[in-house]
Design goal:
Elements (H helix, E strand, L loop, with lengths): L1 E4 L3 E5 L5 E5 L4 H5 L2 H5 L2 E3 L2 E4 L4 E3 L1 H8 L8 E3 L1
Parallel strand pairs: 3-7
Antiparallel strand pairs: 1-2, 2-3, 4-5, 5-6
């Protein structure tokens, strides 16, 4: 799994080849954090965690929200 940010979105590259893009507006703590704070991420089987920002994001929840849009070999943004 790989994670990156642009000015408006959080992007997650999954190990199965899918890429999820979601608006940073969904995560105010991340959007108000600094680039350095966002880089300090812990990835676990439960999801993504930023200690400095007190933020947790479940990849499973992101996939659920996107529903049927996420398919292999495609990139989708909410």
């Amino acid at each position: 799994m790989r994670l990156r940010f642009d000015d408006d979105s959080l992007w997650v590259d999954l190990s199965d080849g899918r890429t999820i893009g979601v608006p940073m507006a969904w995560f105010p703590r991340l959007s108000h954090g600094t680039a350095q704070q966002r880089e300090q991420i812990r990835i676990s089987s439960r999801g993504l965690h930023w200690d400095a920002l007190d933020e947790d994001v479940s990849v499973e929840a992101l996939l659920t929200v996107l529903g049927g849009l996420s398919t292999r070999d495609k990139t989708f943004a909410a």
